[in-house]
Each structure stands twice: as C-alpha cells, then as structure tokens.
C-alpha cells in the first residue's frame, strides 16, 4: 500500500513554484501591434507595465493609427498573459495533484 505524502511537503513545493512564477510575472509579457511598431508589456493579470512607441510614429502618424496600434499591442499582450496564467494554473494543479498522489519513498 502506498504511503501518503506529507501535505506540508506539497505546500512547500507549490510555494516554491509560485515564487519562481512571481519573478517571471514581474518581468511582464510582451505584445506587439500588427504593424510591429508598438510594443506593450503587461503583468500576468493584464495590467499595463510599459508601452514602447517610436518617436517617428508619434510625430508623423495620424493619431488614429497610433491609437489602433496601442490597442492592438495591449490586447495581444493581455491575450498572451491570459494563456500563460492558464498554463501556470494547470501546471500548479498538476504539481499539487501529482505530489499528493505520489507514494513516498
């Protein structure tokens, strides 16, 4: 009969994994507009961290073009952040489940 794993060991492993993810999250997820002129960085929750717009675009482009590029870049970054958050949640769930179900050696 398999021996049960200590829940504190499971909790510690999940906490360590979450700490690693927190560092990655603070670095942000980058999204780019279709024309590849604007870049946006968001955190895992979709909050805007930074926005990069070339000066030539701000000086010479029509405001609507700049606005559309910003919206696209932020939307793409948020989409990627959402995917990353779902993948990480599934991985954490799998890690916690596998550690609980794994027999202790």
Question: What does this molecule look like?
Answer:
By secondary structure, this protein is α+β, with helices and mostly antiparallel strands. It has a domain of 73 residues: Ybab, Chain: A (2-Layer Sandwich). It has a three-stranded antiparallel sheet. A hairpin with a 5-residue loop joins strand 2 and strand 3. Helix 1 runs antiparallel to helix 3. The longest helix has 39 residues. The protein is rod-shaped and about 60 Å long. It starts with 6 loop residues before the first helix and ends with a helix.
Summarize the structure.
The protein is an alpha+beta fold and 105 residues long. It is 63% helix and 12% strand.
Gap between N and C termini: 12 Å
Q: Uncertain spans, ≥5 residues at pLDDT below 50?
A: none
Write the CATH fold name of the domain at 27-99: Ybab, Chain: A
Task: Tell me the name of the CATH homologous superfamily of the domain at 27-99.
Answer: Nucleoid-associated protein YbaB-like domain
Instruction: Count every helix, treating DSSP H or I runs of 4 or more residues as helices.
Output: 3
What overall form do the CA principal axes indicate?
rod-shaped
By CATH reckoning, the class of the domain at 27-99 would read Alpha Beta
Number of strands: 3
Structural class: alpha+beta
User: Taking all residues together, what is the mean pLDDT?
Assistant: 79
Strand order of the largest sheet: 1-2-3
Strand content: 5-15%
User: Which bin fits the share of residues in helices?
Assistant: 55-70%
Taking all Cα atoms into account, the compactness measure Rg is 20 Å
User: What's the story with the biggest beta sheet?
Assistant: 3 strands, antiparallel
CATH architecture descriptor text of the domain at 27-99: 2-Layer Sandwich
What letter string, H or E per element, gives the SSE order? HEEEHH
